[in-house]
Specification:
The chain is mainly alpha-helical. The chain has five helices and two strands, in the order E-E-H-H-H-H-H.
Length: about 200
């Protein structure tokens, strides 16, 4: 079969049709030449040609129909595979959407928890700073003779922390009442705090 210019299919003449035409021409010649015998031969030729053509045409149509059926079966099989793949992809996309929603929810909860933790830490730092300021004020207002034994009993690091926060006159009064070794250790700690601070 072939296509015309207008897109319609035309069937190419098969060999059976060509043979049929040749036989018709031959039988026509026999009728003209041979008389009754020619008529008989021409009739037999025509009958055989009809039988040959009838046996050849259906076989050609059957082959075309078989090809079409095979192509249709392949197309249906591919369509089924595509539908299966689409179903798998749809399931995966749905799972990804659920996971993404869960991640968003977790991120929101994490941001909220971080904000709460930061607020709690700020509150704790503020409370600790308030406590240190009050305790420093208590030591500053104590008589140096009463405060010195307390600082003597403290760890030098701890004592240096308080003395560094006090007014200079109050800290000097307490330092003068300490043992020389204790006063020296606290002085080294206080001096070493700013040793690594850049001077430029």
């Amino acid at each position: 079969m072939r296509l015309k210019k207008d897109g319609k299919k035309t069937r190419r003449p098969s060999r059976g049709v060509l043979w049929l035409i040749a036989l018709l021409l031959s039988s026509s010649a026999l009728v003209r030449v041979g008389g009754p015998v020619g008529h008989a031969i021409a009739g037999e030729v025509m009958e055989r040609a009809g039988q040959q053509d009838s046996t050849q045409e259906p076989s050609e149509d059957t082959a075309i129909e078989a090809d079409i059926a095979r192509v249709l079966a392949q197309l249906q099989e591919r369509e089924g595979l595509l539908k299966e793949r689409e179903a798998v992809l749809a399931t995966r996309l749905q799972a990804l959407d659920v996971a993404e929603a869960q991640i968003e929810k977790n991120l929101t909860a994490l941001i909220s928890a971080e904000a709460n933790l930061a607020a709690t830490m700020a509150l704790a730092d503020s409370a600790a700073e308030d406590d240190l300021q009050r305790l420093t004020a208590v030591y500053e207002n104590m008589k140096p003779k009463e405060a010195a034994p307390l600082f003597e009993a403290m760890d030098p690091q701890f004592a240096a922390g308080f003395l560094g926060r006090m007014r200079a006159d109050a800290a000097a009064s307490i330092m003068s009442g300490l043992e020389p070794q204790t006063a020296y250790a606290i002085s080294v700690i206080l001096a070493g705090r700013n040793a690594n601070v850049p001077t430029n």
